[in-house]
Amino acid sequence: MPNMISRQQAEALIQEQLVSTIQQDTPKNSAFMQLARRLPNMTSKVTRMPVLDMLPMAYWVSGDNGFKGTSQQAWDNVYLTAEELAVIVPIPEAVVDDASFDIMGEVTPRVQEAIGVCVDQAAIFGINRPAGWRADIITAARQAGNNVAPGSDLYDALLGENGVISKVELGGRMVTGAAASMAMRGKLRGIKTTDGLPIFKTDMQGATQYALDGAPMYFPQNGAFDTSVAQLIVGDWSQAVYSIRQDITVKILDQGVIQDPSTKDIVYNLAQQDMIALRVTFRMGWALPNPATRLDPNRTYVPFAYLEPATPVTTQAVTFTVKDAEETAVADATVSVDGARLKTNESGVAVFNLRAGSYSARISKTGYRPATQTVTVAGAAVPVAVELAEA
To answer: How far apart are CA 147 and CA 252, in angstroms?
Structure first.
């Protein structure tokens, strides 16, 4: 048999080709920050926004010399509190030097994407919501009764008389956009008439723009959409506002130590271990001012509604009973739970339906000193007794 140099014998001399690009998906932006309205940057940790709280009234005058009625107008304060998102990514300098790619350049956009995920989860779904932020959009919509069960007729749940769009319109707002899970695309395409014809129209020659009643639809692909809570969220997104205190800031550290947040033990000593660390920080706040309108003078409606999953998330009834010092029920008191508002009835009662978590409540009425409560919701209904003292 003739001799030859085989691939196995020359393996040490054969160089592997390295593709010059990394195969990966493009980083995804924050859906909330795409849809909500951005305000000018914050100049301090807390920003105060005056919001119309009471509308003036007009009255017919009886006769030529009848008395003219009086009215008033009032404003409330809504606050945006800047909370910080941050992360540190340590890496040995030798690894950076030996890598064939710009590791820091690859990490930075992914960290920015992670920041967007955290913003979406906290503002829309309340996941890991900072203590200084108001109640998330889902909690506010649920409290306003703007949650719709999917039922057997998806078209009716979306566009019907009691559908998600109608829920928003009842508060005097128009839907400007919708955010939905990716699974909703297939469900929309599956909606058919009684004759079996598809209601959702597609263009076979170009990209189809999804819309509900003329409002554009967005399908977040950053993984932040919690399908266990909602399938679709619609609303007047111009009413959700946010402001940035500190834009995404990237800094390379080569000195100092990194501690474990829980144990406070030193994990890395950058100088001693020849390491560098990528530090990324970001600060922002958001609010849902929900000013008074003629259709919602008490500001109890919320300009958002959502379609529940097949198995709705569990909530607990939190019942506030408001009385004065003489044990008399206080009607028409405003109960605000992290920004979600209700008025007490004639018995001084307001009932919230809240998911498990900790909430801050403020109870107020003209002529009384405001009261505050911290409410913790777990696996059972929560009664909350409130006493308002006269001012």
So the answer is: 46
Q: pLDDT digit string (tens) for 80-98?
A: 999 999 999 999 998 888 8
Helix-, strand-, coil-residue percentages of the chain, each rounded to 5: 15, 35, 50
Q: Count CB atoms within 10 A of the CB of residue 130.
A: 13
SS (H, E, C) 209-255: CCEECCEEEECCCCCCCCCCCCCEEEECHHHCEEEEEEEEEEEEECC
Residues contacting residue 29 through CB under 8 Å, at least 6 positions apart? 113, 116, 222
For the entire predicted model, the pTM comes to 0.85
Q: What is the dihedral of CA 62, 63, 65, 67, to 10 degrees?
A: 0
pLDDT tens-place string over residues 223-259: 999 999 999 999 999 999 999 999 988 899 989 999 9
- The Cα–Cα gap between 100 and 241 comes to 43
In contact, 239 and 288? CB cutoff 8 Å: yes
Question: What pLDDT digit, counting tens, does each position of 279-320 carry?
Answer: 999 999 999 998 988 888 888 889 999 999 999 888 999 999
* C-alpha distances in Å from residue 121, one per residue of 32, 142, 150, 226: 9, 16, 22, 8
Average pLDDT across each block of 10 residues of the chain; the chain has 391 residues. List them in order: 63 56 56 93 93 90 88 89 93 86 84 92 94 92 91 89 93 92 89 74 69 90 93 96 92 90 91 91 93 87 94 92 92 91 93 90 92 92 93 81
Report the DSSP pairing between strands 177-180 and 215-218. parallel
Phi (first) and psi of residue 14, to 5 degrees: -90, 125
Residue 144 DSSP symbol: T
Three-state secondary structure call for residue 160: coil
Residue 205 identity: Q
Residue 204 is classified by DSSP as: T
Residues 6+ apart with CB under 8 A from 378: 316, 356
- Of 292, 345, 355, 273, the C-alpha closest to 92 is 273
